[in-house]
Task: structure prediction
Amino acid sequence: MRNSAPTILFGAGGVLVEVFQDRALGLPPLNRTLARRLIERTQIFKALQGIRGQKAVPLDQLETLLVRFSYLLCDFLDIQEIDINPLLAGPDGLLALDARVLLVPAGQPKARLTIEPYPNQHTTRLDAQGRHADRRPGDSFRGRAIDHRLAQHPVGAVDPHAILQHGQDVVTRQPDPAMPSGLRA
Result:
């Protein structure tokens, strides 16, 4: 019976994986910052940056892969285990050569996430000018005041004074532009 939450294990693979034990664990859902920190906690990170004249691996692509992978684990709790090994990472990109997926057996409970994704009902979409994209005519004056405060800052930035003055509804979560549109909030 499975009762552990989904986790992501990242590290150097290959035939000596058990010998070097170069790995780091992360809990989904990941964002780009958490994905980068997961990568940086391994010894292979140094090699991914490029060594001895080798070009670096595109770490932004690796971050995106880990973020998307974490969304997969969050969205499909029927997945008991996924193993992508090897994942070739080179200057020209990433390529999964082999993968294995195990599903939770019928009748057994699915995993529960340790960290719940940020609820969409508590997110706010902003347009390019920093105004609420979801705002409709007739919405409250308070919302327009928040729009005005956010318009003074770059999209996605949060003004701590606005939070104190107007409440937590000012805090926004911006979707990752690398995410497919179906995965965005």
About this structure: The first helix runs from residue 17 to 20. Residues 16 and 22 are 10 Å apart (CA to CA). The helical segments are 17-20, 32-40, 44-48, 59-75, 141-151, 160-166. Residues 137-143, 153-175 have pLDDT under 50 and may be disordered.
